[in-house]
TrEMBL record:
Protein name in the entry: Crp/Fnr family transcriptional regulator
Xref: InterPro entries: cNMP-bd_dom_sf, RmlC-like_jellyroll
Organism: Panacibacter microcysteis
Length: 194
């Protein structure tokens, strides 16, 4: 557990350092949680009660259209946060699903515990604000990619930003994430080099 908390501490302190008592209270709210491959952690219609910190494995958040088409919107892997964040923060039902693509190990906490710390520590609010600001900036950048970039440009950006995902994540999910059909993704995989 101590090694897992050290990974969490590095990520948090890179966003915004906490005082030692704030860190101690934050570290105390996390528990270990393991999930098997293809476990649905959150379903559309459910309210996200947990925030996850990924220690091992890969997960994906996705939207399922009424016509049955899936759109992968985000991946999480070590050492990042996971969960359906908008549902977690608003405590409203999720429009998205969160599933494990591989067996996964996490630290996990609950909304009420995070909210208690937000009410207690202004510095913790600052840390959360900065984390959400970075996340929002990433979402806006991704929106530009989705709306303006060609298939090849989207693929190149993915390879520059996260080349390791080609080995971690099944290609059908990467194609969905990029908004490409499987054939186009396969052609790009064979032709694009950085």
């Amino acid at each position: 557990m101590q090694a897992a908390l050290e990974h969490l501490r590095k990520v948090i302190f890179a966003i915004h350092p906490l005082q030692e008592n704030e860190w101690a209270d934050f570290a105390a709210i996390w528990q270990r949680f393991d999930a098997k491959r293809k476990t649905m952690l959150t379903k559309a219609g459910e309210t996200e009660r947990h925030l996850y910190f990924v220690l091992n494995g890969v997960q994906r958040g996705f939207y399922l259209h009424d016509a049955g088409k899936e759109a992968t919107i985000v991946f999480s892997y070590p050492f990042s946060f996971s969960g359906i964040v908008d549902s977690f923060l608003t405590q409203q039902p999720s429009r998205f699903f969160l599933e494990t693509l591989t067996g996964s190990k996490f630290l996990r906490t609950e909304y009420r515990q995070v909210n208690k710390l937000l009410m207690r520590y202004h510095n913790f609010q600052t840390c959360m604000f900065k984390a959400l600001s970075f996340t929002f900036a990433g979402v806006l950048e991704r929106q530009i990619e989705i709306q303006c970039f060609s298939a090849e440009e989207k693929f190149r950006v993915l390879l520059r930003r996260s080349p390791h995902v080609l080995q971690l994540i099944p290609h059908k999910y990467l194609a969905s994430y990029l908004g490409l059909d499987a054939t186009t993704f396969s052609k790009l995989l064979g032709s694009v080099r950085l």
